[in-house]
Amino acid sequence: MKLENIDKARFKKHLNRFQAALVATLLVLSLGFSTLYIALWGSAESNFWLNAAGVATAAIVIAALINRFKDHPALTEVMYVWRLKQALNRIYRASAKLNAALEADNPLAVTIQYYFLHGSKHLHQLEDNTLTMDELNTQIAQLEKQIERLGLTPSVDDYRPELLEQL
Predict the structure, then answer these.
(1) Distance of CA 148 to the CA centre of its chain
(2) With contact defined as beta carbons under 8 Å apart, do 36 and 54 qualify?
(3) Rounded mean pLDDT of 80-89?
(4) pLDDT tens digits along 34-56
(5) Is residue 166 classed exposed, middle or buried when 0-12, 13-18 and 19+ CB atoms within 10 A define those classes?
(6) What mean pLDDT value characterizes the chain?
(7) What do you get for the CA distance between the two ends of the chain, in Å?
(8) Among residues 101, 109, 128, 164, which one has the fewest Cβ atoms lying within 10 Å of its Cβ?
(9) What's this model's pTM, rounded to 2 decimal places?
(10) Contact (CB, 8 A) for 86 and 121
(11) CA torsion angle 40 28 86 129 (round to 10)
(12) Dihedral pair phi/psi, residue 156, rounded to 5°
C-alpha cells in the first residue's frame, strides 16, 4: 500500500461524520430490530437474547452498508486510513521475525521496517497522535543509521505485503 498525502482537515471532518452516522445508525437500527424481535417473539421474562439479536442484526446491516459504500468519495480518506492501519498491523504481528531479521541486517527487513516506521509516523500525524512521536522519531533515526551502514536506499514505495512472507 502506498502512502498518500491526504488533507488532514478533510479526513477529520469525514471521520467525525462517519463515526456520528455509525453511532446513530447503530442506535436506531438496534432499537428497531430489538423492538421488532420482542414484538414477534418476546415474553414477559427477560428479552436479553432478543435485544442482543437486534444489536447483532444492526451490526450486520451496517457492515453491509459500509461494504457497499466504501468507495464513495466521502469515505476515501477514512478507508485509506483503515487500510493503512491494516497494513501496519500486519507488519506489527510479524514483528518478532522482523526484529530478528533486522538484527541480521536483512535488506528486506530494513525495507519493511522503513515502511512501518514512516507509515506509523504518517498515521500519527493524520490522527494528531503526538504522544509517541518522539519515540517513533528515535526509531527512525536508528534505522537511518543502519541503512547508512548497510549502504541501502529503501523507500516507502518499495514495500509490498509479500515481503513479509519472504522473511
Answers:
(1) 31
(2) yes
(3) 95
(4) 999 999 998 878 899 999 999 99
(5) exposed
(6) 93
(7) 18
(8) 128
(9) 0.84
(10) no
(11) -150
(12) -65, -25
Q: Residue 88 and residue 99: Cα distance in Å, rounded?
A: 15
The whole-angstrom separation of Cα 112 and Cα 82 is 19
How would you label 79-101 residue by residue, b for 16+ Cβ within 10 Å and e otherwise? bbbeebeebbeebeebeeebeeb
Helix, strand counts (H, E) of the chain: 7, 0
* Grid coordinates given for 166: 519472504
44 — phi, psi (to 5°)?
-70, -20
Count of residues in the chain: 167
CB of 18 within 8 A of CB of 75?
A: yes
C-alpha cell at 3: 502512502
In contact, 166 and 11? CB cutoff 8 Å = no
Side chain identity at 39, as an amino acid letter? A
